[in-house]
């Protein structure tokens, strides 16, 4: 079989950037950013699909500004729900595979243990609601699909909490970070590498391939406060210097850090289904932090 044409959206996002590296050996990768294809414009999406005619569509593009989405629900819906619906409809008509990414923020965070794929979503923010609508549109489109839910994404490329903490700890002598929201920081590179592994298995054994929804996060869990603390410790080990003294991050409750969008208290996602279906093991989030720090310089 000829190598597949793989369309990747969100080329300049954290995951889209890493996917261009990880998917390069699997086929002809065509990566598009916002300037090539505005996902808020249905006509532009259809024109792009007709021009590229992909065998596989990988869609990490999203409206990811969680607080801003509260006041821009229509735009968030267009990018996070309508665009995936259009990609799914095209994939269904043409027998293409759609790989899509979603979020821990589809859950309300009230569960005690890790969320499984069978748990009922109940998003509390506009971002979470529009991401859930995108998932549902894809499942309803009838296309072959993989929906990979992840959490707390970070990488050397693009904006994320790890980089914010490194910046704030250099600018300030005091930092307060919420210590009652639990989840797993997940490297964008891991998400991209797992996507490539899965697509390799799809290329080799398409019969009986286990399409569907999976949770994909790094091993282990922490709080935003524990994560920030680990980032600073790992950076200090690598010779970074901060205005903020060593362990001076103050743990605070969510109520002490009011934001427009509510975040789930429990964002922990079980990865058993993914590990069993694709015979994978997932590295610890701390390994990802250490690796990304080798790519960043004080
Ligand atoms: N970031 C996180 O912490 C998490 C992310 N996810 C999900 O993982 C996926 C990947 O996230 P991540 O890579 O971190 O996201 P980023 O925010 O890093 O990248 C998203 C990309 O989407 C692009 N985009 C936004 N609006 C449009 C538009 N109208 N037309 C075309 N492109 C657009 C952005 O373009 P531009 O650069 O021009 O703004 C950006 O490059 C998303 O589905 C996200 O919902 C899930 C859990 C956590
Ligand atoms: C910068 C900062 C944040 N915080 C808190 C606010 C919030 O509860 C938490 C994380 O802040 P952020 O705004 O960076 O994170 P947020 O934008 O909510 O991150 C989310 O993005 C979307 C796209 C997802 O899908 C989620 O998985 C998750 O990664 O840390 C502090 O307590 N102190 C601080 O100084
Ligand atoms: Mg954010």
CATH fold label: Rossmann fold
Could you spell the SSE succession in H and E letters?
EHEHEHEHEEHEEEHEEHEHH
Structural class: alpha/beta
Which consecutive residue ranges, at least 5 long each, have pLDDT under 50? Answer: none
Query: CATH architecture, please?
Result: 3-Layer(aba) Sandwich
Q: Tally the beta strands.
A: 12
CATH homologous superfamily name?
NAD(P)-binding Rossmann-like Domain
Beta strand %: 15-25%
Give me the number of helical elements: 9
Major β-sheet strand ordering: 2-1-3-4-5-10
Explain this structure.
By secondary structure, the chain is α/β, with parallel strands linked by helices. It has one domain: NAD(P)-binding Rossmann-like Domain (Rossmann fold). 39% of the residues lie in helices and 15% in strands. The protein is built from 9 helices and 12 strands. The chain has helices at residues 14-22, 42-52, 73-94, 126-141, 161-171, 188-204, 224-237, 272-278, 285-293; strands spanning 5-8, 28-31, 56-59, 97-103, 144-150, 153-154, 175-178, 182-183, 186-187, 212-215, 222-223, 249-252. Strands 2-1-3-4-5-10 form a 6-stranded parallel β-sheet, with helices on both faces. Strands 6-9 form a two-stranded parallel sheet. A two-stranded parallel ribbon has the order 7-12. Helix 7 crosses helix 9 (285-293). The longest helix has 22 residues, at 73-94. The protein is globular and about 55 Å long. The N and C termini lie far apart (47 Å). The mean pLDDT is 96. NADPH dihydro-nicotinamide-adenine-dinucleotide phosphate (NDP) is lined by residues 10, 12-16, 34, 37-40, 60-64, 79, 101, 103, 131, 150-153, 158, 188.
């Amino acid at each position: 079989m000829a190598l597949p044409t793989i369309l990747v959206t969100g080329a300049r996002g954290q995951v889209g950037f890493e996917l261009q590296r990880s998917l390069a050996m699997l086929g002809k990768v065509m990566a598009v950013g916002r300037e090539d294809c505005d996902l808020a414009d249905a006509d532009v999406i259809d024109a792009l699909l007709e021009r590229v005619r992909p065998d596989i569509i990988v869609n990490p593009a999203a409206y990811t500004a969680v607080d801003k989405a509260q006041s821009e629900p229509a735009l968030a819906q267009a990018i996070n729900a309508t665009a995936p619906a259009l990609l799914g409809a095209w994939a269904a008509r043409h027998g293409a595979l759609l790989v899509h990414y979603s979020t821990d923020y589809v859950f309300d965070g009230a569960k005690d243990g890790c969320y499984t794929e069978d748990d009922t979503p109940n998003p509390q923010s506009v971002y979470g609601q529009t991401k859930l609508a995108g998932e549902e549109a894809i499942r309803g489109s009838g296309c072959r699909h993989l929906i990979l839910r992840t959490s707390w994404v970070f990488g050397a490329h693009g904006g994320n909490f790890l980089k914010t903490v490194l910046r704030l700890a250099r600018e300030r002598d005091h930092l307060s970070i919420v210590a009652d929201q639990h989840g797993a920081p997940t490297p964008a590179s891991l998400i991209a590498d797992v996507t490539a592994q899965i697509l390799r298995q799809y290329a080799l054994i398409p019969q009986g391939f286990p399409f569907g929804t999976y949770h994909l996060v790094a091993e282990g869990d922490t709080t935003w406060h524990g994560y920030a603390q680990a980032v600073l410790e790992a950076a200090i080990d690598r010779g970074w210097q901060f205005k903020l003294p060593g362990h001076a991050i103050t743990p605070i409750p969510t109520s002490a850090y009011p934001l427009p969008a509510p975040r789930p208290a429990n964002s922990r996602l079980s990865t058993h289904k993914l590990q069993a279906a694709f015979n994978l093991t997932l590295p610890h989030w701390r390994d990802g932090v250490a690796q990304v720090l080798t790519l960043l310089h004080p």
